[in-house]
Amino acid sequence: MKLNHPFHLVSLSPWPFTSSIAVFTTAMGAIMYFHRYENAYLMLSFGFVSILYFMFVWWRDVIRESNGHYHTTKVQQGLQMGMILFIVSEAMFFVGFLWAFIHFAAQPSVYLGNEWPPVGIIPVDWTRRPLLNSALLAASYFSANVAKYAMEINLKKLCITNLIITILLGLLFSYYQYLEYSDSAFTLSDSVFGSTFFIATGFHGFHVIVGVLFLLVCLLTLKEATPNHCVGLRLAVLYWHFVDIVWIFLMGIIYYWGSYSRHG
């Protein structure tokens, strides 16, 4: 049946509901793990694996819709607007954590020893791994852009090369952040400094991993993409740029500005 409109009426899908259950299970597993409940890691692992599975089947269905020519120009515009609104909501998420960090750093209370960083806290040296990670994300910004523009002019080999480079840079970032956390002189429970530091940078690290997965899916499905039907790649690169921009603020506020002493 030929449609007389450019929109795609999406079929009923169980994946939004099941994905939310998986995220909730992962969050509960993480909370129980932090509180040292017995076998909490099983719930955490099950939730995380469920998220990966539902991401896979959801992406699979979207790819099938694209291959079925349901992604008209109007639909692609809607998908892009949806991603932009999602990124705005995620930006507000990070604004909250950064605002909390700035609030406590600017006016350290007596509970923090009237000092910032709080008494006994040795901040992460921003000139070492954080600076290296900044260089990695800066390089990935350009390689992601090259991949996007290569696809738009139908140079798939160049696109593949730069997608692989971007994914490897993202994995290196995650690895060095893991080393940074392992060598940190403070923990999540060490005052408001530790909690805001690890939550803000940890959630950013999670977004990097999601971005890597997004780019990996684009790489694996690139043979089916065309310059006019590569909305997934465009959105993945847009999301990756958001990750880059958030890191600039984390680097400037938490690692650099937040590491210098000030008194209340």
TrEMBL record:
Q: Name one GO biological process term.
A: mitochondrial electron transport, cytochrome c to oxygen
CDD domains this protein is in? Answer: Cyt_c_Oxidase_III (cd01665)
Indicate the segments annotated as coiled coil, or none if absent.
none
Give GO cellular component annotations, separated by semicolons: mitochondrion; respiratory chain complex IV
- Which part of the chain is the Heme-copper oxidase subunit III family profile domain? 3-259
Where is this chain's protein located in or outside the cell? Membrane
Sequence intervals crossing the membrane: 12-34, 40-59, 79-102, 158-178, 198-222, 234-258
Predominant location category: membrane
Write down the membrane topology.
Answer: Multi-pass membrane protein
Q: Does the keyword Membrane apply?
A: yes
Kindly name one Pfam family recorded for this protein: COX3
Give yes or no: UniProt keyword Nucleotide-binding: no
Molecular functions per Gene Ontology: cytochrome-c oxidase activity
Q: Which UniProt keywords apply?
A: Membrane, Mitochondrion, Translocase, Transmembrane, Transmembrane helix
Q: Which family does it belong to?
A: Belongs to the cytochrome c oxidase subunit 3 family.
Role description: Component of the cytochrome c oxidase, the last enzyme in the mitochondrial electron transport chain which drives oxidative phosphorylation. The respiratory chain contains 3 multisubunit complexes succinate dehydrogenase (complex II, CII), ubiquinol-cytochrome c oxidoreductase (cytochrome b-c1 complex, complex III, CIII) and cytochrome c oxidase (complex IV, CIV), that cooperate to transfer electrons derived from NADH and succinate to molecular oxygen, creating an electrochemical gradient over the inner membrane that drives transmembrane transport and the ATP synthase.
- What protein name does the entry list? Cytochrome c oxidase subunit 3
